Amino acid sequence: MPIKEFDVIVIGGGAAGLMCAGTAAKRGLYTALLERNQRPARKVLVTGKGRCNVTNNCEPQQLIQAAKTNGRFLYSAFSAFQSKDTMDFFEQQGVALKTERGNRVFPVSDKAMDIADALVGYAKHHRVNFVHARCTEVCKDENGQVFGVLCEDGEKYSAKAVVIATGGKSYPLTGSTGDGYAIAAALGHTIIKPVPSLVPIVTNESWCNELMGLSLRNVTLKLMEKGKNKPVFHEMGEMLFTHFGVSGPLVLSASSHMSGDLSRYRLQIDLKPALSQEQLDARLLRDFEKYKNKNFGNVLGQLLPRKLIPVFARLCNIPLDEKVNQISREQRKAMISLLKCFSVTPKCFRPIDEAIITSGGIKVGEINPKTMESKLVPGLYFAGEVIDVDAYTGGFNLQIAFSTGFLAGSHVCKQE
User: Using one digit for the tens of pLDDT, what is the confidence trace for 346-360?
Assistant: First the structure.
């Protein structure tokens, strides 16, 4: 069986791997990209609900602040390839971009496919060799120097350098099954235990199942922790009720601020953030006067989504068929309190394969932050989610992939 020879082999055809391979090939290096899926960039296709939040339009310092795990390690990567560079890159590939709330950047088309196609096109333009294969081992010689890889089908490929960009363990159907951890561990690298981040939350409240499919828009979510008066997380946006609890952008963001025993947290939803308690009271008084002979359940339709009404009334301890003119001042105050603080209690996270990203991975202390090269194995590099770095939602995690991929691709096989 012949050995194929390359300068660089990149394992993993996601955002980091494609950026790395294209950058290395652009430098004139004979580059191969090994991807187990028939189609590269599959995870990119499902990001941002299929729209792809490609980056966050901010300065490098803000990128570092948004990286909740090992942000300082990313200083060189963000300096080498920042948000502006990502935006310029895609616009040069013919993808028009737009900036939305929270400086989130999306393609104007709202199609993640455009981002995926641009990454693949960039790599192909610079003549990256795409190889459909699953790598199982990175080989090194008696001096500890990388010299190639071995694949599941028995094929061997030689190279002066290898980049592991296999992603984490989230979204395994896209190919992120944690292969890179095993390969790196076999070479002596430490793996920080992978755990879910940006993940839906299972709640204790069984009534969440009754609200399954209900999406709340323009609500405010606060994450409170026992013993702390200040919210751990506080943001306006969209969330979703599911058969197991809660999900959606706000919940995923809140989850990244949670760790350990989740019972010490509480999620508080302000269903009417634009109105103060006094304004809500005035509105209720007007509605109650206008509909004083109607049933309570019918009047709530002016305030809440239909699906939420039975649960809300039950939590207020007001029968749906009670006449509005029978509702007491105390009951009205209870309604206002619930509208401003509709709470659920977290029980646990959903499994890691439902997480947007993985927290954990290759220990950053074993990687040179200026080059992404292993400190333990010469010629071995890392890029993207396989490293123990992750960030909040808003395009920051894809930016980590692009920045580390670019940095690795810029330094691989380079005489420092």
Answer: 999 999 888 888 899
Distance CA 11, CA 129 (A): 12
Q: CA 352, CA 358: separation in Å to the nearest integer?
A: 7
What's the token pair of residue 102? 């929270």
DSSP E strand boundaries for 189-337: 191-197, 201-203, 215-225, 233-241, 245-247, 265-270
- In this structure, what DSSP letter does residue 87 have? H
CB-based burial of residue 41 (10 Å sphere; 0-12 exposed, 13-18 middle, 19+ buried)?
buried
Residue 49 makes CB contacts below 8 A (sequence gap 6+) with none
Rounded Cα distance between 207 and 201, Å, is 14
CA distance 139 to 146: 6
Q: Give which of 22, 32, 35, 11 is closest to 164, Cα–Cα.
A: 11
Nearest alpha-carbon partner for 387 in 367, 413, 408: 367
Residue of 212, 394, 396 lying closest to 305 (CA atoms): 212
pLDDT at 51 over 60: yes
DSSP secondary structure, 340-368, as one string: H-EEE-EEEEPPGGGSSEEEEEE-GGGB-
pLDDT tens column, 153-203: 999 999 999 999 999 876 555 555 789 999 999 999 999 999 888 999 999
123 sits in which H/E element = helix 112-125
- Coil vs helix vs strand at 106: strand
φ and ψ at 5, to 5 degrees?
A: -110, 130
Q: Where are the beta strands (DSSP E) in 226-324?
A: 233-241, 245-247, 265-270
CA–CA dist 36, 73 (Å, integer): 29
Q: Are 11 and 381 in contact (CB under 8 A)?
A: no
CA neighbor of 280 nearest in space, from 202, 356, 335:
335
Q: What is the pLDDT of residue 193?
A: 94
Q: In the chain, what is the straight-line distance between the N-terminal and C-terminal CA atoms, in Å?
A: 35
Whether residue 316 contacts residue 256, with contact meaning beta carbons closer than 8 Å, is answered with no
